[in-house]
Amino acid sequence: MDRERIAFNNLAKELKTAYLERGELVDQVLACLVSGKHIFLLGPPGTAKSSLLKAVCNSMEDSRYFSWLLTRYTTPEELFGPPSIEGLKNDRFERVTKGKLPEADLAFIDEIWKASSSIINTLLTIMNEREFYNNGGGKPMQCPLKFLAAASNEMPADDELQAMYDRFLVRTVVQPVVSESATRALLTQDDPQKMIKEKITAKILKKAMDTASKVNVLDDTVDTVIKIRKTLKADEGIVASDRRWKEIFSFLKAVAWLSGDDEVIPEHLSATVDCLWEQPDQRNTVASVVGKISSPAVAEARELLDAAKDEAKKALEAANNSDAGNNPEMLSQLGKANSRLDKSVKQVQALYNKTKSKASMEKIKAISEELSGLCNEVKETARKTLKI
Length: 388
Description:
Elements: H1 3-18, H2 23-35, E1 39-42, H3 49-58, E2 65-69, H4 76-80, H5 85-89, E3 106-110, H6 117-128, E4 131-132, E5 141-142, E6 147-152, H7 162-166, E7 170-173, H8 180-188, H9 202-213, E8 216-217, H10 219-236, H11 242-258, E9 263-264, H12 273-276, H13 283-294, H14 296-320, H15 328-354, H16 358-386
Helix pairs in contact: 1-2, 1-9, 2-11, 9-11, 10-13, 13-14, 14-15, 14-16, 15-16
């Protein structure tokens, strides 16, 4: 494996250790960075949105980083620089852009939807064309911006903000941690930003971006994208802009490269779910359509896991709510659940063995581990019930 991919893999591992239950988000952010696309994080306050994005940007060495929290009173000067006194003396309006967004390689804008009209128009040009007009309408200056991340606890409310909303290829929802282990770590561990030691130099980042951009996209993948697009529109009434469908391929190349794959295959399309919904309540529908069409093995593994959870829940509740040791029916239920769970484990393993994508293999592996945990729980309950 080349050193660029090793460096990004190391960074991903550190981020996933520091930010528990944020594995998918970490993968999305790094894929956006490597593909030069922008990402928007939607979620309630206190869900580590800002912390994770800052941790990623701070891990990039030799790169100029700009960060700002917007309010209703934020002025263009705060983002783009104050007027040049020397320019005003010569009847020219120019901004001093040093240390501001027009000269940044990486940027993070918090509470993005509080941007005023005067900020939105300039920001759109920087995000899309990577240009900043600083000389009264003459030739624009080229901006080195590779990646802009934004966060908010709300969706854009005004039509005026929709154009900027569409500039974020990935739009993901961040929820509070759920599991007990993640909650415990959250309460006891140090500042997660201090846990990130890996550094990505500007040279490594550039090489990663160049290499990822050359990853081949299989014809089968293009055909699958067309099928997903058609199905979402015809069956669900969900329509993404033509620009988004085009930009998805750059993002997918980065996803494949980061996963250790040399080609973009249909299974990689599972990473595009958060590129295709417009409103958060559409996400589950998009995920279902994309999963069944692009990653049937992962979708089938998840269905097996869901069925196994229901089976295990019923058996365990029955055992806990009755004297199963003296109840042949309950013992039979535990036995049947155990047998079905064992069968599901074998089915998921078979799906893993025939999967080509490393990313899909990781997802199926995680499902397999969770399924094995359920099996062990049912077996242990049966053992205790029978007093073996």
